[in-house]
Design a protein that fits this description.
Helix content is 95%, strand content 0%. It is rod-shaped. By secondary structure, the protein is an all-alpha fold.
Length: 177
């Protein structure tokens, strides 16, 4: 009985052996292809991870660029407002100087002591007004100059961010290298 069992077992081994052998040969032939495929998948995963990291940096940089653009616009508007205010104050100062000159002329032509006293008071008021307008103009011009400096710094920062964005864009687009 054991001989019969061993015989049947050997018969099945011989019968199955030819089927198993080509399978192993096929598997050996597929190993380089599978390794190449696995390498390609790994490279694709690394490329996707790099792309994701660069895209995240780009998105952050775009946000910073937009914020810096808003800052530049605000500084420009402030500089324009201060220039307009300084121009208006300079015109007002010219008007005060003209009024002062007219009052001084009237003072020189005053015949009455009471009228002369009024004119002298008017001259002192106009001189004080002129002095105050001069101080205000100097302060306004100083503020305008400081604001212009801040605007130039904001523009420089914007240009720096823009350059970094361009560099990132070149990294994302391999055809531009």
């Amino acid at each position: 009985m054991t001989q019969k069992l061993v015989g049947i077992l050997l018969f099945f081994c011989f019968l199955c052996a030819p089927c198993a052998a080509p399978s192993q040969v096929t598997d050996d032939a597929n190993v380089p292809a599978l390794n190449a495929l696995l390498t390609e998948v790994r490279l694709l995963r690394q490329a996707i991870e790099r792309q994701g990291a660069v895209a995240g940096r780009a998105q952050l940089l775009v946000g910073r660029l937009a914020l810096q653009d808003q800052r530049v616009a605000r500084w420009q508007a402030e500089v324009q407002r201060l220039e307009t205010d300084a121009s208006n104050l300079a015109l007002q100062r010219v008007g005060t100087q003209g009024a002062l000159a007219r009052v001084r002329t009237a003072l020189d032509q005053a015949k009455d002591v009471e009228q002369a006293a009024e004119m002298e008071h008017e001259v002192r008021m106009r001189e004080a007004q002129l002095k105050q307008e001069g101080a205000n103009l100097v302060a306004l011009e100083t503020r305008r100059d400081e604001t212009k400096q801040a605007l130039e710094a904001a523009r420089a920062k914007y240009e720096e961010l823009s350059d970094r964005f361009d560099q990132l864009e070149r990294e994302l687009d391999p055809s531009r290298r």
